[in-house]
């Protein structure tokens, strides 16, 4: 699903945030990305999201070299990649329904189809009953679930998350990880950047570890 071939990312012409990355993540796999602060986790995810371009090497997603996508194809590519951020980036003046519907509105999906898909996504994250609430009326864990519903509303083949439990306590963090496992179980490829080693250790998925922009360990699920 994801293949990095000799990938490097240099910022500002001299600082190598990522170097010599070679790895693959198979379709249907769930993998964690760990490493110290500044190791390059967010940079790696940004390359897959096409928010940044590699300075070296190439990245294949679903068999396509994403560096060769024409600008006009980028929006279509991004629809296949759901993204969850630590701070969930919800619009505070829109209710939960409209926050989740946003990607579909932008794509021009009909209101009827929007309603169907938004409710299916909210149902999967257990928040169907809160669709009229504003983000501030929800707990941190619930807000993160809305972020996940928005990321999956297009049924992406690939789901990426950057420190999705960064602001949550251990019990809520475990709930959020279970939700990612649910999506993985139905076939979604999942890659999650997290520095929470205690949480990751209990979950038994493949773990890629970065240090100073290099892959220093690739541990299989046990
Ligand atoms: N746009 C940018 N311009 C210049 N340097 C950058 C840029 N983005 C990231 N960096 C640098 O690249 C390195 C890797 O950063 P990155 O955010 O990918 O690490 P990280 O592992 O996600 O860290 P954290 O866990 O603290 O978020 C850091 O030294 C960072 O300062």
TrEMBL record:
InterPro entries per record: AAA+_ATPase, ABC_transporter-like_ATP-bd, ABC_transporter-like_CS, ABC_transpr_LolD-like, Cell_div_FtsE, P-loop_NTPase
Membrane topology: Peripheral membrane protein
Organism: Cobetia crustatorum
Record's subunit section: Homodimer. Forms a membrane-associated complex with FtsX.
Pfam annotation, one family: ABC_tran
Keyword presence, Cell membrane: yes
Family: Belongs to the ABC transporter superfamily.
GO BP terms: cell division
Protein name: Cell division ATP-binding protein FtsE
